[in-house]
């Protein structure tokens, strides 16, 4: 809900408790009755609520005595001082005509007075009128000027007499005088002092005192303050609004914008921290409230379900009141997001110094930041990873949890940061409503279909991160047991369909992401239910054997089995007896898959062999001898014996390492080289998954290069593999074209 930056129009809209002051001033105006005019000054800075106060005053005036002639004169509608003066009297005549229909002579006299002024340029000085006709003063013109001056003074005298006789009370307000040009400001005060100083007439002038004093002093070439004091008999400072009332007005507007926001989406503790330590320092007037809530309202409507409401409130404060700071934030995403911990004291110190330099660039202590302390407090709250660099004590304020940040769409989560500035979801993001529906509402078939759609859109990692976050959440978003079983089943059944390459050094291996989801989900069930569910998963033919092996190896490792230097975890998901039952199911399915050759048709279908060798070494050894039956199965075996990794020399490079000793357990290496070398020149080779093609080419290149004594002798960069693979494919395409 956007609000125009307009003053309130009615008493009922008063949110700053100024109604009693407005009523008292209105009574004073109505009760005033003297033969001279009275000028009241309402002094207040821009945005202090002068116009709102005037509106309330005059609403009270008309309620107390509707017989008073009220003129709300707007000098902004005039283009120059001369027009300002003439329009004032024209409007005064109209106001009297509308309110006092019997006083025909009064309004007519004032209208004539305006016409006379329209033909002259009038400069009142010390209470007398000196007129200079605007045309070239010939002798005849001089005589006409004197005559017109006499007419002007006589006209004014007639007006004064008529107003006294008719006992007409006039109350005039002139607002925003400080926004006029210096010449127009002087014209207003000359008007009030010399041209319109009528009896029983009250002027209520609203303006910024300092601005008007400077203008009067400059144009009058004297003391502007002294000049003003001669004109304004009753000065009033606009009552400073109670800061609590301003804050209450802010809360009221925010409540209207947010509506019935779910309790779990409102981070109360962080809001209190943001408001008390930062935001409230900037909200000093109703105009501040309007500016702030207007920007927030727009951003909230665009991204209400994709951002943390509280984080958006904090960021909007910087955008509105510290725009130079706000504009720099997108350039420091890597510094601001996440958290920076190092096991090395020296590395930790280097990181902290880097963050410190960045903060000093974002919010320098050079006068460009309006409130440096408030700015740093807001930044420290929005980005907990840098709060110690803001001078905060460790442990004070909210901490950083990646899981919670993902769930809340926090700005501190790298995955969510960009949307706060782009006002749209970043590429790869999944709408929060979609994720929540999938996690908490979709049926099993719907979830399976939606999961595959997310995968096809290239967003499967983001979905898994979200499921992991919700699985470990401890707030109101708890996944019940029934949903837990559905999610684990859908992920397990579809896992082998996800062809996702692992990244570099610092990325989580894709296979681990299944475990990061399954383990915390299982912990939401009792031990018996866990074992029962996993037995049904392992027996499900839709779950590929390689996926079964991935899950089983995780359970084994938690018990300290089949892992180097592993220790049994006190928090193991399954007990040993349950894991042994799963082993038996796995062994039976693994043997069946090898015998049926089905694993050779699956993506990474042989990824279970290592675990089979640990559980049933004799069975595995026997089966390995008969697995290579054709060129396709040979490539599958080579891929099974190839690991992926990264090496950092001058740059970080992705690599593949072929375990030739392990490969020799399946096939003679010389024979394997000759067969795969020939196979790589055939079209059928390029029908295989590209990842398996790369493993085969890696093996060829490693065999063909000069022998080296190095731990990396069987390792080769993926860039080199891709180069050769592309050349091989191009060669075949050229040969096919020539044959055609």
Folded structure, characterized:
- The chain has 740 residues and is an alpha/beta fold.
- Helix content is 57%, strand content 8%.
- A 5-stranded parallel β-sheet has the order 2-5-6-1-7, with helices on both faces. It has a 3-stranded antiparallel β-sheet with strand order 8-9-10.
What is the total number of structural domains? Answer: 5
List low-pLDDT spans: 1-5, 122-141
Range of helix content: 55-70%
Give the CATH topology of the largest domain.
Rossmann fold
Task: Outline the fold blueprint.
Layout: H1 19-31, E1 38-43, H2 50-64, E2 69-73, H3 81-99, H4 104-118, E3 120-125, E4 128-133, H5 139-166, E5 170-174, H6 182-195, E6 201-207, H7 209-220, H8 224-231, E7 234-237, H9 243-258, H10 268-277, H11 286-303, H12 309-321, H13 323-328, H14 333-336, H15 345-362, H16 372-382, H17 402-407, H18 414-417, H19 419-422, H20 432-440, H21 444-456, H22 460-471, H23 481-494, H24 510-522, H25 527-539, H26 545-558, H27 576-595, H28 609-615, H29 617-624, H30 631-640, E8 642-648, E9 652-658, H31 660-663, H32 669-679, H33 690-704, E10 715-717, H34 718-739
Parallel strand pairs: 1-6, 1-7, 2-5, 5-6
Antiparallel strand pairs: 3-4, 8-9, 9-10
Helix pairs in contact: 1-2, 3-4, 3-6, 4-5, 6-7, 7-8, 9-11, 10-12, 10-16, 11-12, 12-16, 21-23, 22-24, 23-24, 25-27, 26-27, 28-29, 30-33, 33-34
């Amino acid at each position: 809900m956007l609000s125009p930056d307009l003053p309130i129009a009615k008493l009922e809209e008063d949110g700053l408790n100024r109604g009693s002051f407005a009523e008292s001033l209105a009574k004073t105006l109505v009760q005033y009755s003297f033969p001279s005019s009275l000028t009241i000054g309402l002094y207040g800075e821009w945005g202090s609520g002068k116009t709102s106060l005037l509106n309330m005053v005059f609403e009270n005036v008309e309620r107390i005595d509707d017989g008073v002639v009220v003129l709300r004169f707007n000098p902004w509608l005039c283009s120059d001082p001369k027009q300002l003066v003439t329009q004032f009297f024209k409007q005064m005549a109209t106001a009297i005509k509308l309110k006092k229909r019997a006083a025909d002579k009064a309004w007519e006299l004032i209208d004539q007075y305006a016409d006379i002024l329209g033909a002259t340029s009038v400069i009142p000085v010390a209470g007398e009128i000196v007129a200079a006709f605007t045309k070239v003063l010939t002798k005849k013109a001089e005589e006409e000027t004197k005559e017109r001056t006499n007419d002007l003074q006589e006209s004014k005298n007639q007006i004064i007499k008529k107003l006294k006789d008719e006992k007409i009370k006039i109350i005039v307000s002139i607002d925003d005088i400080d926004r006029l040009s210096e010449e127009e400001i002087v014209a207003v005060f000359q008007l009030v002092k010399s041209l319109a100083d009528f009896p029983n007439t009250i002027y209520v002038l609203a303006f910024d005192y300092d601005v008007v004093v400077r203008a009067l002093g400059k144009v009058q070439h004297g003391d502007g303050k002294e000049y003003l004091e001669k004109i304004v008999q009753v000065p009033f400072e606009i009552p400073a609004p109670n800061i609590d009332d301003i804050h209450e007005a802010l809360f009221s507007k925010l409540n209207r914008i947010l509506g019935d926001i779910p309790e779990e989406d409102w981070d109360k503790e962080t809001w209190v921290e943001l408001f008390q330590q930062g935001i409230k320092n900037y909200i000093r007037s109703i105009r501040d409230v309007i500016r702030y809530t207007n920007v927030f309202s727009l951003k909230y409507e665009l991204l209400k379900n994709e951002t943390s409401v509280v984080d958006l409130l904090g960021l909007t404060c910087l955008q509105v009141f510290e725009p130079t700071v706000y504009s720099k934030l997108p350039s420091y995403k890597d510094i601001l997001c996440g958290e920076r911990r190092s096991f090395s004291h020296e590395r930790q110190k280097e990181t902290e110094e880097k963050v410190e330099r960045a903060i000093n660039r974002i919010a320098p202590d050079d006068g460009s930041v309006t409130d440096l302390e408030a700015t740093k407090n807001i930044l420290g709250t929005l980005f907990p990873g840098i709060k110690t660099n803001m001078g905060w004590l460790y442990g004070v304020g909210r901490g950083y949890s990646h899981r919670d940040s993902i769930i809340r769409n926090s700005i501190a989560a790298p995955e969510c940061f960009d949307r706060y500035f782009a006002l749209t979801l970043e590429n790869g993001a999944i709408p929060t409503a979609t994720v929540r529906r999938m996690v908490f509402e979709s049926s099993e078939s719907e979830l399976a279909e939606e999961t595959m759609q997310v995968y096809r859109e290239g967003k499967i990692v983001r979905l898994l991160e979200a499921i992991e976050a919700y699985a470990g959440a401890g707030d109101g978003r708890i996944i019940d047991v029934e949903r837990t079983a559905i999610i684990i089943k859908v992920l397990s059944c579809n896992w082998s369909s996800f062809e996702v390459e692992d990244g570099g050094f610092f990325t989580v291996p894709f296979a681990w992401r299944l475990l990061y989801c399954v383990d915390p989900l299982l912990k939401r069930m009792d031990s018996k239910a866990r074992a029962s569910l996993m037995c049904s998963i392992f027996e499900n033919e839709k779950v590929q054997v390689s996926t079964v092996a991935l899950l089983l190896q995780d359970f084994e490792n938690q018990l300290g089995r089949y892992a180097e230097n592993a220790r049994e975890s006190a928090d193991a998901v399954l007990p040993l007896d349950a894991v042994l039952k799963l082993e038996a199911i796995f062994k039976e399915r693994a043997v069946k898959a090898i015998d049926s050759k089905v694993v050779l048709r699956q993506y990474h279908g042989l990824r279970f062999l290592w675990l089979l060798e640990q559980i049933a070494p004799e069975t595995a050894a026997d089966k390995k001898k008969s697995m290579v039956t054709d060129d396709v199965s040979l490539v599958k075996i080579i891929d099974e014996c190839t690991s992926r990794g990264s090496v950092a020399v001058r740059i970080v490079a992705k690599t593949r390492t072929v375990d030739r000793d392990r490969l020799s357990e399946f096939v003679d290496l010389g024979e394997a080289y000759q067969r795969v070398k020939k196979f790589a020149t055939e079209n059928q080779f390029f029908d295989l998954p590209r990842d398996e093609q790369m493993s085969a080419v890696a093996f060829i290149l490693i065999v063909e290069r000069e022998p080296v004594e190095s731990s990396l002798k069987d390792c080769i960069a993926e860039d080199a593999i891709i180069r050769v693979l592309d050349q091989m494919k191009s060669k075949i395409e050229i040969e096919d074209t020539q044959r055609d």
